Amino acid sequence: MVADVLWAHCTPADRVEHITVRTSVDSFCVVFFQLADSVESAESTAHSICLTAIGNSTFLHGWSLHRIRPTATDK
Fold first, then answer.
1. Which domain of life is it from (predicted)?
2. 24 inside domain
3. Which of 23, 41, 56, 68 satisfies CB 3.0 to 4.6 Å to 36 for a cystine?
């Protein structure tokens, strides 16, 4: 459900290819796979999508974003 909410807040310009959500006892780990020109661009886009989803979704009401750890990979 969390991935669906995040997908609903993505646009084609975000260049998101896949979203994975893993759960733990008290948190969720969200991983975005994106086509981006830089790690900074990917981080900014993921951050924006998360904040928009948190701000607009009743399902995510009360949630917060704690940290982003970008990892760049080449295909």
1. Bacteria
2. yes
3. 41
